[in-house]
């Protein structure tokens, strides 16, 4: 299941993964809170508590985008749409947060005015992570992975 995740990432040796965890996200906005909790527990297990604030912010934005634009955008198809999944992968010097969703659409950074309540998600992802990107899922008809990379101290 992880094989399509490697495609499109910055060069990393898949054999050097020192930790990997994933969770399925229910098709409701409460899943953002669940994703943060999952992230906290995973980072604590990897002794990376100091990164939680930045990583949790990025995870929240990626999950919110997946829910808003891929999962909940077509409520009439909710039963037919595969759920989003959050993947956390740790290498000796890198941490990758990746969110898989069923949408074929590319993520687009919005231009939000100062009074807008949304539209800054990818700007925040770019600001708090060391790099980010996305790629279509290999070997399936629909879906993509949006990822963010953090360099570890």
Give the SSE map.
Layout (H helix, E strand, L loop, with lengths): L2 H4 L12 E7 L5 H15 L6 H20 L12 E7 L3 E8 L19 H8 L2 E6 L7 E8 L2
Antiparallel strand pairs: 1-2, 2-3, 3-5, 4-5
Helix pairs in contact: 2-3, 3-4
Features:
single chain, 153 residues, alpha+beta, Heat Shock Protein 90
CATH architecture: 2-Layer Sandwich
Please count the beta strands (DSSP E, at least 2 residues each).
5
What low-confidence regions span 5 or more consecutive residues with pLDDT below 50?
A: none
Order of helices and strands: HEHHEEHEE
The strands making up the biggest β-sheet line up spatially as: 1-2-3-5-4
Main pleated-sheet profile: 5 strands, antiparallel
Contiguous helical run count: 4
- Average of the residue pLDDT scores: 82
Summarize the structure.
By secondary structure, the chain is an alpha+beta fold.
């Amino acid at each position: 299941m992880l094989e399509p995740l490697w495609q499109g990432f910055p060069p990393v040796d898949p054999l050097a993964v020192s930790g990997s965890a994933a969770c399925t996200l229910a098709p409701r906005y409460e899943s953002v809170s669940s994703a943060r909790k999952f992230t906290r527990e995973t980072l604590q297990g990897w002794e990376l508590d100091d990164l939680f604030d930045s990583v949790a912010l990025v995870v929240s934005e990626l999950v919110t985008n997946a829910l808003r634009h891929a999962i909940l955008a077509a409520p009439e198809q909710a039963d037919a749409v595969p759920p989003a999944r959050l993947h956390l992968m740790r290498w000796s010097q890198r941490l990758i947060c990746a969110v898989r969703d069923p949408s074929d659409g590319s993520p687009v950074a919005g231009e939000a005015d100062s009074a807008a309540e949304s539209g800054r998600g990818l700007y925040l992802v770019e600001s708090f992570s060391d790099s980010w990107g996305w790629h279509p899922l290999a070997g399936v008809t629909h879906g993509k992975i949006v990822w963010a990379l953090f360099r570890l101290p």
